[in-house]
Amino acid sequence: MKIVGISLLSLISRQRAVGAFSTAPKFGVRASTARFMSSGPMPYDDDKMPFYALGTNLAMQVGGQGNLKTLLEEDEMDIVLEAFTETMRGTAAADSREVLMKYGQGLNQILQERTANIVERVKKDGEEFITNFLDCNEEATKTDSGLVYYPMVEGEGEQPTASDTVEVHYHGTLTDGTVFDSSVDRGETIKFPLNGVIKGWQEGLAMMKEGGKATLVIPSDLAYGDQGSGEAIPPGATLKFEVELFKVVK
Q1: Is 241 one of the annotated active-site residues of the chain?
Q2: What does the pLDDT look like over 63-111, one tens digit per residue?
């Protein structure tokens, strides 16, 4: 018997991440992880915290710290948590397989529709941001692909190609100014092969020379598309990077 819930889990996992810069630099993962670390007191003693960690892991896998919570109303989330608890404890009144067979497809449709609406809104916000950025920065140019390139400091050294490795500093933000990843904040440059990053980076870095600094505004189809990346980058998000190119390694 095929359980409808499998497609639900697949949908939720698609809404979460492909690690930051997968076709992109993987340094984004470190930054987003660091932001969620807390030095505050833990809710339980050390001997019980591993079980709390298990609950945290399950919640994050299903989307409790990610996009699922943005798709549900508060009363709907309460029902989800009730079903989870009862099913885990074995106290659910309804048969789990019957629930999935009867209501799983309907749930998939609800989540797909809500996800599509959110993604379209985020994309529209990105388009408006790009229009405003171009209006406010006369030297900024928009390429045929949709990338916005704004030179801040002109470089004079080597210009990278897709086969090169580059050493850079970067500061990445969402259109609302939220920092999702920054080598500048970490205080260390990073090296990576240019052909292993998102399309917006490949195109933008190829327009720079060593010693140069530029702002790249990257629409979602040149970044992480409708999937987004982890908890840091929403599906459909337009990204803004300030990038300084230190070295091109041939």
Answers
A1: yes
A2: 644 467 778 889 999 999 999 999 999 999 999 999 999 999 999 999 8
Catalytic annotation, pick one of 149, 180, 218, 233: 180
CA atoms within 13 A on the CB side of 71: 26
Is 27 noted as a catalytic residue in this protein? no
Is residue 181 among the annotated active site residues?
yes
**Alpha-carbon span 247 to 206, nearest angstrom:** 12
Q: Has 6 been annotated as catalytic? A: no
Q: Are strands 239-249 and 165-174 parallel, antiparallel or unpaired?
A: antiparallel
Active-site residue identified among 133, 150, 170, 233: 170
- Given 198, 218, 221, 233, the catalytic residue: 198
Which stretches of the chain are DSSP H helices?
Answer: 5-15, 27-36, 49-62, 68-71, 74-89, 96-136, 183-186, 199-205
Please give the sequence-ordered ranges of beta strands (E in DSSP) within 162-238, or none if there are none.
Answer: 165-174, 179-182, 190-193, 213-218
What is d(CA 134, CA 224) in angstroms, rounded to the nearest whole number? 22
Concerning whether 198 is annotated as a catalytic residue, the answer is yes
pTM of the model: 0.66
Query: How far apart are alpha carbons 168 and 244 in whole angstroms?
Result: 5
Is-catalytic flag, 36? no
Helix (H, G, I), strand (E, B), or coil: what is residue 143?
coil
Dump pLDDT digits (tens) for 219-233.
Answer: 999 999 998 887 789
How far apart are the C-alpha atoms of 103 and 79, rounded to whole Å? 14
